[in-house]
From TrEMBL:
Organism of this sequence: Hymenobacter persicinus
Descriptive protein name: Lipoprotein
Keyword line: Signal
Cited PROSITE patterns: PROKAR_LIPOPROTEIN
Signal peptide extent: 1-21
Length: 178
């Protein structure tokens, strides 16, 4: 909910209450109605502030946990397994050529799409490491890659980044809610 609408609804209720009762009440009664509604508005603001504070603490905890996980080195055996699963015949990244780099990205993204829903954040760490290695190989052979292949690779890179960011946002959202 937007912060402006958070303020607008109670303020509108206050104005409506004053408008409806102004014809049949005295100024002193209207003054008491305004005080009551202002206290309700203050209570609502206090509850919203408490929820924001809690969400902030949970987001900080999520970030701290994520940073600690990222400092842990990846297991080479698991990385090799992930590479074989995600790249199949293109698993030997350092040997990819200008004609095989685009199919390797395509294979990689097909596997990421298929597996992403059951992945943990650590699984994404492995996928990201493979993605970075693919990007390094692309950088090394880029001048020999056909333009249309490079354009398709850029689209696949954007998709991977979007999928990974979406998962991060989803996990952060769940951490803040819990």
């Amino acid at each position: 909910m937007k912060s402006s609408s958070l303020f607008f609804l109670p303020a509108a209720a206050l104005l409506a209450a004053v408008a409806l009762t102004s014809c049949d009440t005295t100024p002193r009664e209207r003054q008491e109605i305004v005080r009551t509604e202002a206290r309700n508005l203050d209570s609502l603001a206090d509850r919203a502030a408490a929820k924001l504070k809690t969400a902030g603490h949970r987001a900080a905890t999520f970030d701290s946990t994520s940073r600690a996980r990222n400092r842990q080195p990846l297991d080479n055996t698991s990385l090799s397994t992930f590479t074989a699963e995600l790249l199949g015949t293109y698993a030997s990244i350092e040997t990819l050529t200008p004609t095989t780099i685009e199919p390797a990205y395509k294979q990689f993204l097909q596997q990421v799409r298929a597996r992403q829903k059951q992945w943990t954040q650590r699984d994404w760490d492995y996928a990201t490491a493979i993605y970075k290695r693919l990007n390094e190989q692309l950088k090394a052979i880029r001048l020999d890659v056909k333009g249309r292949d490079e354009l398709h690779i850029r689209a696949l890179q954007a998709e991977f980044t979007a999928l990974e960011t979406g998962r991060d946002v989803k996990d952060l959202g769940q951490a803040v809610k819990n």
